[in-house]
Amino acid sequence: MNMLDFITKLLAATLAMGTSLAYATLGEVYTQKTGILNLGMEGIMLMGALAGFTTAFNTGNLYLALMMAMLVGGFFSLIHAFLCITMRANQVPAGLAITMFGTGLANFLGERLGPASNGYNLTGMNIPSKFSNIAIPFLSDIPILGALFDVSLLTYALYLLIPFAWFFMYKTKHGMVVRAVGENPRTAASMGISVSKIRYIYTVIGGMLAGLGGACLSLSFTPSWNEGMTGGKGWIVIALVIFSTWNPARVVIGTLVFGGITSLQFSLQAAGLKMVIPSQFLGFSPYLITLVALATMTIINQKKKGSFASPSALGTSFAIDDK
Amino acid sequence: MKFRLEKRDSRSTRMAVLVPVASLLVSFILGAIVLLISDANPFQAYAAMIKGAFGSQTKLQYTLVKSIPLLLCGLAVGIAFRLKFWNIGAEGQYVGGVIGITWVMQFWTFLPSALLLPVGMLVGILFGAIWGGIPGVLKAQWSVDETLTTLMMNYIIIGFAEYLYFDAWKAPRGNMGTVLYPKEAWLPRIWGRVHGGIFIALILVGILWFVLYKTRWGFELNMIGKNKRAAECQGVSIKKNIILAMLLSGAIAGLAGVIDAAAVTHQLTKGVDAGYGFTGIIIAWMSGLNPFISIIVSVIMAALETGSDALQMTMKLPNAMGAVLQGLILIPLLAGNIFIEYRLLVIKNRKEVTA
Predict the structure, then answer these.
(1) CA angle, corner B140, sides to B135 and B145, nearest 5?
(2) Within the 56-115 window of chain A, which residues sit less than 8 Å (CB to CB) from chain B?
(3) CB–CB of B142 and A295 under 8 A?
């Protein structure tokens, strides 16, 4: 295999891998911009993957499957919003609760929603169709960059969604409201903005996108259901939000880099590098790199006196009558 | 009719007891709905779970054996949670403990066999402390987000453990797992399957209770958790305490791994990441970070796990039911916490009625 081919294949694998991450990261950016930290992403993505898969399995309708994944994702993040906003619970344990409940329930239902012939298990079942790659004529023949034009509909949608999210957040009046709620909820409230309402809306939207991200895995990337199939991607998403410095446009960079590392790891394993480096080391390398990158970035950020700061009110509850 | 929340003058002790108990009940009710959806009779299922967890002496012993690492992990994360350091890495620190003791048991053969167990335990505890200490230092020195670092470190050490039991330390025969520890270095059993680790765990509960509630250090940790700025004004070093608390937290999680390895598995093998570290988070939160109450809560959590194993065997229901119920407990618990610090006022026709 020549180098050009290898890079094109790697980019294609990166895009396929990064799609699921990009949806969920975009969702978490929306949520965190309003000041709500949702650590429930891992659970929500897994529930989304399950909801999408089981709908596609039973109806064969992929679009209905996406809707179900979004609905379920929205519902789980609604629980998170209720805990953090209405009940003023600490956002960290609330998110952990969503992740624990979501992963538990998804794994439970994955062994109950399958056909009786398979012992009610969904694992090992196939869906009638999946989101396959659609090649755009001519464009997809370009070396390397052609990979960008031979992706699934889910990835093409991102080409629109990410610029839209950036434009919305930084160039529209409503986007300004969202940022104000996350930066300074008290001022926002005094301007007549309902902080709680905005936080509810964007937490739910964030969850819907995470559900969609989960469904990307079970309907396109690895069209199947497997217990715990998100394998920590929901946590990577939280790190990617930090790497993107809460800017929707930079979500692309983070997901491409992370998707690239993970894909490279797989292709290196396939290429027989495990003779030199044990496969388990390659397996945990994405997490190690995330850890090192997170630490490096936080330290640099501190030296530069917080130029990539998080939304000021992130993680804090807000009530008008609080003193 | 309108609702309004009013801050209480002091935390309500009645609510602090009522909320966790009610949460347990709510989670069982919601769990019943999950069971109904999946075509199972909830009464039958719960009865099977209770029978599976406490139904006979052997079953009770299994539940108690499971509750020992759970209790220790609950204590471990509880210490970090006291200063609002979100250690979700107890799972990895636990695995670190198992790696440590296995290393001694397998390679420190120059030691007299009577010393293998104590030295192995110490090294395991040390590994746990190091694995917990790294995120502690990162947070204290450069405020690197601890939820992510502790979590990433879980994946790293679990992957490393896999490499050890599948590859580097694999016993010559079989396809995974290290050689069993020498029999004379096992932690002895005291009642059926229940082993001496139960004493270590209970003594630690007493020590921790004393340290956290009766010493200046415990007082400092509490103060940092409640109000960082006030603590700093009082001259409490936040950096030092974060690192100390995380070393201790990691050490105790490591101890949990060490005890389970020395008394139950006698090797490093698949399944070492059994999820005790994550369940420990629920235990810490439900017990209100109180070591004594953690004892009861960890037995309940262990019962949910052994009970759901029984559920799988007798009713062919997925044993993930235990995880569903465990996860479900936290949601009403977090929602209810507000009533400990606030009271709900019901405003009816301009008259205020306190509920």
Answers:
(1) 55
(2) 79, 82-83, 87-90, 92-94, 96-98, 100-105, 107-113
(3) yes
Q: Chain B: give the shortest CA distance to residue A55, in Å.
A: 16
Distance CA B291, CA B204 (A): 9
Question: Torsion angle, CA of B153/B138/A103/A46, rounded to 10 degrees?
Answer: -90
What's the total number of domains in chain B?
1
For residue B52, pLDDT over 70 is answered with: yes
Interface size between A and B, measured as CB pairs under 8 A: 142
Residues in chain A where the model's pLDDT stays below 70 = 1, 273-275, 305-308, 320-323
Mapped onto helix, strand or coil, the DSSP state of residue B143 is coil
Cα–Cα distance, A285 to A267 (Å, whole number): 13
Q: Please answer yes or no on whether B155 and A108 come within 8 Å at the CB atom.
A: no
**Structure-block tokens of residue A255:** 């997901």
**Rounded distance between C-alpha atoms, residue A308 and residue A298, angstroms:** 9
Q: Is the pLDDT of residue B355 over 50?
A: no
Q: How far is B152 from chain A (nearest CA, A)?
A: 5
Domain membership of residue B142 (yes or no) is: yes
Residue B259 token pair? 């005890």
Whether residue A242 contacts residue A295, with contact meaning beta carbons closer than 8 Å, is answered with no
Task: Summarize the confidence of residues B152-166 as an average pLDDT.
Answer: 95
Which chain A residues are within 8 Å of B38, Cβ to Cβ?
108-109, 112-113
Residue B109 is assigned to a structural domain of this protein: yes
Of A104, A288, A291, Cβ closest to residue B323: A104
Q: What is the predicted ipTM?
A: 0.89
Note whether B341 and B1 are within 8 A (CB). Answer: no
* Assigned domain for B30 exists: no
List chain A domain ranges.
3-131+150-303
How high is the pLDDT of residue A323?
A: 39
Rounded to the nearest integer, the mean pLDDT of chain B is 91
Domain of residue B85, residue span? 70-291
Residue B344 has a pLDDT of 81
Give B-chain residues touching A305 at CB under 8 angstroms: none
Fold of A3-131+150-303: ABC transporter involved in vitamin B12 uptake, BtuC (1.10.3470)
What was the pLDDT predicted at A1? 59
Tell me which residue has tokens 């969503």.
Answer: A98
Q: Considering the domain boundaries, does residue B125 fall inside one?
A: yes
Contact criterion met (CB < 8 Å) for B323 and A79: no
